[in-house]
Automatic annotation (TrEMBL):
Protein name as it appears in the record: Pyridine nucleotide-disulfide oxidoreductase
Domain of life: Bacteria
UniProt organism field: Brevibacterium senegalense
Amino acid sequence: TKGDALETITHLIEDHTSGLLDAPADPREDAVIELLESRGVDFADWDGFHRLESAEQALGEPQGRERVKIPTRDGMLEHSRRRVDAHVG
């Protein structure tokens, strides 16, 4: 939920400010992506996030809602990989 996300980010910022977080072993911007790929972790990149957001909005439109959330990780990953103009559902 948004409340959980807010609580999580609040604690992360507090931990960072207090010096409780270790410096990354590899500070390059692409290091996290390389790590996830090396471990075979499926993830959505920024473009994929926008594809997922568009899919959720398209699902909500017929119901007069801003969006309908896609609840499963597999579903989110599937929609994040689709082309924006592909069939949603």
